[in-house]
Amino acid sequence: MRSWLKVFLIGLALWVATIVVTMSTLNSNLIPTLVLLGSFLVPVTFVVWAYDRGRSEHVTVELLFRAFVVGGVLGVLGASLLETWLLKPSIWMYLGVGFIEEGVKLLALLFVARHLHRRTLRDGLVLGATVGFGFAAFESAGYAFNAMFTEEGHLSLQQLVETEVLRGLLAPLGHGLWTAIVGGVLFSGAGLLPILLAYLGVSVLHALWDSMRGIAIALTMVLTGQQWQFDMLRIGQVPSVTDGQVHMYTFLDWLGLAIISVIALLWLRGLSKRPQSQ
User: What is the value of pTM for the model shown?
Assistant: First the structure.
């Protein structure tokens, strides 16, 4: 059995066991364990998978650990500070989030790899993915913790678990993928312009991903909106929606995420096919 699959199955078994024991005993001391296991399961699995995918001997387990933990923590701390200082609610907010988060992950990658003398495209892909998955793991832990609290102030283990499952399923198509692309271009020896274009590209993909709900809502209203709904919007009220519009919104939301993911995966595949000398 492959090492990444062993890691995933063992982690999954421990996470499920923690869910069962926590729900049966209502022991709140187990909640941090539940949050950490669920948030780190998929990111760690993909880092182990990436480690076995042809990295050089210069990318050691110690370096990967630093990239995951140090890079991930520096990324979330930097993003939190910059987003608090620089961003205000607006139609461009998610674009700002994309540029900030991809920027801090790129800086975190440069920091953890500063002593790496020999750099190859493949190593950039692996280390970039590791920093991205570290960011995703710590970010998901925060989302899971917040999801645990209901609007009435009660604790909901169901919401916590649902959030971790959803973010776990989407994790391979987000932060790890985007930072792997930038890391590959950075380590490939390309000039400044290709690096800037890669950073710009993944930042836009990130922004589109985060704003897809709003885009799906707008497209649903354009395609299926009725006059009375537009009239309510004009006077600042939120109109009710039909079952058909709910289905349309869900379809457009997931379709948009799928298109963004395919673009990023094709981009990553193209990078991985390049000769290492580049």
Answer: 0.91
